[in-house]
Amino acid sequence: MLVQAKGVGRITSPNGMLTLLTGVNTSGQPYYELQRGKRTIVSTSLLGVRLREGDMERNFRILSFSTAGKDETWTQPWGEETHVRNHYNELTMRLQQVRGKRRQLTLVFRVFDDGVGFRYVFPSQPFLHDFVIMDESTQFAFPFDAKAWTMPTDGTNYYEALWTASPLSTKPKVSTPVTMEVDDSLFMVVHEANLTDYASLCLRPQHSEKGTSVVKAELVPWSTGELVFAQTPFATPWRMLIVAKSVAQLAASRLMLNLNEPCRINDTSWLETGKYVGVWWGMHMNTMTWAQGPKHGATTANTRRYIDFAAAHGMKGVLVEGWNYGWDGDWTKEGDKFSFTKAYPDYDLQALQRYARSKGVRIIAHNETGGAAANYEQQLDSAFALYHRLGIKVVKTGYVNALMDNRELQHSQYGVRHYRKVIEMAAKYHLMVVNHEPAMPTGLQRTYPNLVSGEGARGQEYNAWSTDGGNPPYHLCVLPFTRILAGPLDFTPGIFRIEGRVHVQTRPQTTLAKQLAAYVVIYAPWQMAADEIENYEGQPAFTFIEQVPTNWQASRVLLAEIGKYVVTARKDRDSEDWYVGGMTDADARDLKIDFSFLDKDANYLAIIYRDGPEADYVTNPYPMVIDRLTINANTVLPIHLARSGGFAIQLKKMR
Ligand code: NOJ
């Protein structure tokens, strides 16, 4: 429907709470604003792009506004819940420059109850075919300077820095998501959705008046300085803003997924979720090596041990790193030497695969590229065809080093294109991908649900070898409201032998119970039990890892303050059972869990794994108490969490 051709376009969310206004200013530059009720929550923020072919920022006039909308519910093959409602009103503003080549640019805005998305569309037109984006002018101008949780982009490899909080205006250049705590009833997240053939979005604060904050888009460039090479017709990824009343609502937002395209994999019946163990932690703890030699981890005998363990404990997968040629030199610099099909002589690829299959377990193939993306692309088809023939279902990819001889960044358009090739090739061979050192995820798993998980965060491995002692206690209490809003995280929880072995001071800075809590709090459809398997033998706590599902029909955050504590409840996709995980930062805490989310007329057997009275992450991380109680929807359970402690609860519905 055409609404008006001049002036200000206006669109509200389906529930009427959010109103977006857009138009062009006196210089002909497009802008937008956002209001919640009567309160402005995004002030006038400029839009536009600068191309090598000329400026597309100013001198625009509005050709037309039109509106559309949608209300649909779609089903996730796997996820934090089964069904997602996609309900929005849409406003399209068509613009044309009044000078020069009279170029056309379209802005599409979608307003949902939980936030907004907008994107630039470059229509086919006489004087714009191939073009190069040199700058994106998109601003987010806030009439407040909120406490923001961010991760810096500079000085961190692979987006593996700690998230820290300070006023938005004081930040360096940061990656998205950016999570803002504005006040007790306003939380906002800036991120992007559907990053396709473009460069990752970062934000940099611009000069702003005291008490306000303005950030501007900065895209990750090619090594040659350009940001994006494109051709009309072209649409950018969505720039998105989640708007929520509470941190629980933030975590429940599915705005990013809704802004992605529907599933392109016709038959998704081969997709699975599950847990895995791996020939992995030993390499990070220096007890094994990826390379050949006396400590080689990926031997036939060692892998058989892991397969036996997986089969005995209900793990579907066994990750094996270091099985293939290429690890013997400095693999972080010589990625071209990696073969993705040729196994080391002490690793019997075919026999191990047969053995695994006979036990109902599958090997997870590991493809570390050392950043040599071209070498990987050359072998992709034949390697994935081989894995498919062998019955492999999951591939973990890795990019330790920037791409292409250390020239192109993971988050550049080059990287984004490369990762897409891998996902599409994997789909062809019915393989699921766990992408380490990825570009920051943007919800592509809606379109390609074989992209099951990824890294892009300081994972458990830092608790093996980082020189700063490991991840600080607050880290896991931040991730659900920052990185994990961007998608599943392969954090690899479940370290039971909590002691420094590479550096004495470096180890998981958690109690054992907090390691269990991560299986519920940290969302991933494939979850690792990351420790060396001998450390699970005879451990009653391991029963929780055996039992906890990795696919859910419902999820909710029950209690949380970002960076301090978080309690999450999730309902198993395949049963009536619930699981609850809770964790705290360096402060001990007494929380009360209200179980009113349970079915009203039922009793549940609760098996509670909690910190023992003497547990303390510094002095004694191990003590754990396992209780069995009957509870129901009226139960309010007090629970004590040790310093950097936690708890995990299995709730089995009783007949
Ligand atoms: C970094 C990955 O995050 C880690 O899981 C892997 O073991 C190494 N690269 C080697 O590929």
Brief characterization of the structure:
With 655 residues, the chain is α+β, with helices and mostly antiparallel strands.
Please explain how this structure is put together.
The chain has about 650 residues and is an alpha+beta fold. Helices cover about 15% and strands about 35% of the residues. It has twelve helices and 36 strands. Strands 7, 8, 9, 10, 12, 13, 14, 15, 16, 17, 18, 20 and 21 form a 13-stranded antiparallel sheet that branches. A hairpin with a 2-residue loop joins strand 15 and strand 16 (about 185-195). Helix 4 packs parallel to helix 5 (about 350-360) and helix 6 (about 375-390) runs parallel beside helix 8 (about 415-430). The model is unreliable at about 1-5 (pLDDT under 50). 1-deoxynojirimycin binds near residues 280, 321, 398, 400 and 461.
How are the SSEs ordered, and which strands pair?
Blueprint: E1 9-12, E2 18-24, E3 30-36, E4 39-46, E5 49-51, E6 54-56, E7 60-75, E8 83-97, E9 104-112, E10 115-122, E11 130-136, E12 139-142, E13 147-152, E14 164-167, E15 174-183, E16 186-193, E17 201-206, E18 213-219, E19 228-231, E20 234-235, E21 238-244, H1 247-252, H2 255-258, E22 274-279, H3 281-284, H4 300-312, E23 317-320, H5 349-358, E24 362-368, H6 373-390, E25 394-398, H7 403-406, H8 413-428, E26 432-435, E27 451-454, H9 462-465, H10 475-478, H11 512-521, E28 526-528, H12 542-547, E29 552-561, E30 565-572, E31 578-584, E32 589-594, E33 604-611, E34 624-631, E35 636-641, E36 646-653
Parallel strand pairs: 22-23, 22-28, 23-24, 24-25, 25-26, 26-27
Antiparallel strand pairs: 1-2, 2-3, 3-4, 5-6, 5-11, 7-8, 8-9, 9-10, 10-20, 10-21, 11-19, 12-18, 13-14, 13-15, 15-16, 15-17, 16-21, 17-18, 29-30, 30-31, 31-36, 32-35, 33-34, 33-36
Helix pairs in contact: 4-5, 6-8
1-deoxynojirimycin binds next to loops.
